UniProtKB/TrEMBL annotation:
Residues forming the catalytic site: 264
Enzyme Commission code: 1.2.1.9
InterPro entries linked: Ald_DH/histidinol_DH, Ald_DH_C, Ald_DH_CS_CYS, Ald_DH_CS_GLU, Ald_DH_N, Aldehyde_DH_dom, ALDH-related_metabolic_enz
A Gene Ontology molecular function term of the record: glyceraldehyde-3-phosphate dehydrogenase (NADP+) (non-phosphorylating) activity
Family of this protein: Belongs to the aldehyde dehydrogenase family.
Name assigned to this protein: NADP-dependent glyceraldehyde-3-phosphate dehydrogenase
Cellular component terms (Gene Ontology): cytoplasm
Annotated localization: Cytoplasm
Pfam family, one: Aldedh
Reactions mediated catalytically: D-glyceraldehyde 3-phosphate + NADP(+) + H2O = (2R)-3-phosphoglycerate + NADPH + 2 H(+)
Domain Aldehyde dehydrogenase: 26-483
Amino acid sequence: MAGTCAFSEIIEGDVYKYYSEGEWKVSSSGKTVSIVNPTTRKTQFKVQACNQEEVNKIVESAKAAQKSWAKTPLWKRAELLHKAAAVLKEHKKPIAECLVKEIAKPAKDAVTEAVRSGDLVSYCAEEGVRILGEGKFLVSDSFPGNERTKYCLTSKIPLGVVLAIPPFNYPVNLAVSKIAPALIAGNSLVLKPPTQGAVAALHMVHCFHLAGFPKGLISCVTGKGSEIGDFLTMHPGVNCISFTGGDTGVAISKKAGMIPLQMELGGKDACIILEDADLDLAASNIVKGGFSYSGQRCTAVKVVLVMESVADELVKKVNETLAKLTVGPPEDDCDITPVVTESSANFIEGLVMDAKQKGATFCQEYKRQGNLIWPLLLDNVRPDMRIAWEEPFGPVLPVIRINSVEEGIRHCNASNFGLQGCVFTRDINKAILISDAMETGTVQINSAPARGPDHFPFQGLKDSGIGSQGVTNSINMMTKIKTTVINLPSPSYTMG
């Protein structure tokens, strides 16, 4: 934690500082924001409540730093990113401790997030050198009616200042998935971490600081959304926004104006189970996909659409696997840990009570203690229940029995979300046809939905997002094409 020598400068008293112009600072507002431990439901950390004046200074310094950073050789940018990745992995334990206390992430998963984040940064450095080190050469006579009198050279140049806003559930990994592409492409980066997860993000930013990046190039501003949220996303000095989260992204997209947006806004990932599916495989993936990190993942299985003829057997197998999950505090590495806030737990409970009132079959007794909700499978869910459509972001999973593949596809496509989906069948031809019919950004065949590996394209349709993520796509999104045309005095043909 910050008490260790490496992180001692990021905290003053019991309040964590914000990061600007290469220094850790205390906000002039004199105010702080409390971070509540989901397990104890008591204040665990405090961070600075920055004001709009400080945001202005951060963006101003980011614009200045970006100008010189864009002139830094690609190999040097990559070298610094590799160094940051090494520092990040070296300090995985204190970062993981923050994740356990801030967002109740199981201890082993918290360490994995830190290591995975370092790997992502290194991969991004390598991929960036390849992508940005190449351009295109075009000649004019490839288009009808032209002679070879023009040579066209294209290259990728940075956008400027990138604003990165990650979500609470992966505040480190989904932060570096925005930071690393932005930096290798020659941009500067302003990070606005989520409140729950802010301290882990501050530790991560300090790893970049220790790696020796130029002052002002990376900033991390904490505070209340009501004070600096809209101010940041509408700031004229911001040239690109990369956001992962919920409905807030829709509002951001409407206010941001004419700048590139990269957004992932949640999902209601459907899992379609055919009659010929390997039910053991399906059941294990349903539990893994629907209940890991207590279902608080955008790519979690959110609804199971199973053919009636195999539904009883599938439900039995899922329940047998669910019974083996451990429930308790994240420090004990339990499978099911408290959801992030009391309001989240209340929302989940509202969905459960609605399903109960409308006649869903409870495969387990509904049990809740504070923010901790025991895993629950709801069978015989109907389309008139809220849980059939709304994203619980918790350890509650509905099962809808279907009589045809078409019925399952119709339900999937009727959702306003379209992030991922999955289908279980032994017939690859059926799988491909169903995949083509599902209105989602990604379809997994015989596996639960997943964002990774981190270099795979990751995108949503409909209300699930704008643009595509993944290392290559993010680098391309955070650059623009610059064209230089050489006009020749007469047609020129090589070896003519």
